[in-house]
Amino acid sequence: LVTNTITRNPSPCYPYLCKVRDSILSATLSSFLRAEAWVQEIAQAKKVGLPLIASVGFTLDDVREIAPMVVEAGADAVEVSVARSTTLSEFREMVSGARKVVPKPLFFKLNTNMVNLREFAQAAQQEGADGLTVIDAAGPGISIREDGFSMLGSAGGEGWLSGPSIKPLALRALAEVCSSVSLPVLGAGGISDGRDAAEFIMMGAWAVEVNSASILRGPKVYGQLIRELLQFMQMRGYESVEEMRGTALRHLPKTPFTSLKVPELLPSRCTGCGLCVRFCLYGAVKPGRVPKLEASRCRGCGLCVSVCPAGALRL
């Protein structure tokens, strides 16, 4: 379990959540509850028997005041959400300062507003952090109603995007961080099913955090995600998460592929849905019970491979 981010000075605004397709835009990155209320919530949640991480943000002063409170309440670890405007030197000071007041495992949650994630990750390791979380919500962004008014009650109508829309950003950030430090890294950002969780683990994550999916689909999503992850592992022949961890990271190309490659069609897998025909930008896929590929017209973009639901096309 991971709490919402706890700060010294909550600043609520209303409304503060809106659905954007399959994702969420949030006007706040922290909880509206005060730290004293969270102390009671943590003590109650600990009765469930699950490990609990208390999220604290966004400054060193916040950590100094709140971290001892949540640790005393029973938090097993502390995750510090870092302000978007934090410089690298300020971050170093924050990590070393937090390390002095947090006796439990200490994680830092990075975000895509940091210019060089690799440098921030390495600084966290050098200053004594126990682990990292990648990534926080992305943004800011805006969503409007049909009448032109903002969906959110924040200044400027701005909010922070989470959910499937930011998954590619999260995977890319995770790859950069996992390849630059030896710390355990928790993956977050757009995980909504077992396949997503598997991809994050294959990119190097030790565990994953899921929030937006549970907001949109309810707490049942956690059990479903675990079942889907186990099914994926069985299908791919993985006997443990450890065996799966980092496999995708090792396959990332060091340099661009410059030779055009035409997809291979596997007729035995094709269901005749026609999506490859519909999505081909160059008319290289001809319709039929089993579509035919015209190699001379193919530009090797790979879009057809990504839209095929049956895995009948591969590169």
Please characterize this protein's 3D structure.
The protein is of the alpha/beta class. It folds into 2 domains: 17-251, Aldolase class I (TIM Barrel, Alpha-Beta Barrel), CATH 3.20.20.70; 264-314, 2-Layer Sandwich (Alpha-Beta Plaits), CATH 3.30.70.20. Helices cover 34% and strands 17% of the residues. The chain contains 11 helices and 14 strands. The strands form 4 sheets. Strands 3-4-5-6-9-10 form a 6-stranded parallel beta sheet. The chain has a 4-stranded antiparallel beta sheet with strand order 1-2-8-7. Strand 4, helix 3 and strand 5 form a beta-alpha-beta unit. The radius of gyration is 22 Å and the shape is globular. The model has no long low-confidence stretch (mean pLDDT 97).
Corresponding CATH superfamily of the largest domain: Aldolase class I
Number of strands: 14
User: Into how many domains do the coordinates divide?
Assistant: 2
Distance between the termini: 39 Å
What is the annotated CATH architecture of the largest domain? Alpha-Beta Barrel
Largest sheet properties: 6 strands, parallel
Helical percentage: 25-40%
How many alpha or pi helices? Answer: 11
> Mean pLDDT, nearest integer?
97
Determine the CATH topology of the largest domain.
TIM Barrel
Order of helices and strands: EEHEHEHEHEEEHEHEHHHEHEEHE
Describe the secondary structure blueprint for this structure:
Layout lengths: L16 E4 L2 E4 L8 H11 L7 E6 L1 H14 L3 E6 L5 H14 L4 E5 L6 H10 L4 E4 L3 E5 L15 E5 L4 H12 L6 E4 L5 H9 L4 E3 L2 H6 L2 H17 L4 H4 L19 E2 L9 H5 L5 E2 L5 E2 L9 H5 L5 E2 L1
Parallel strand pairs: 3-4, 4-5, 5-6, 6-9, 9-10
Antiparallel strand pairs: 1-2, 2-8, 7-8, 11-14, 12-13
Helix pairs in contact: 1-2, 2-3, 3-4, 6-8
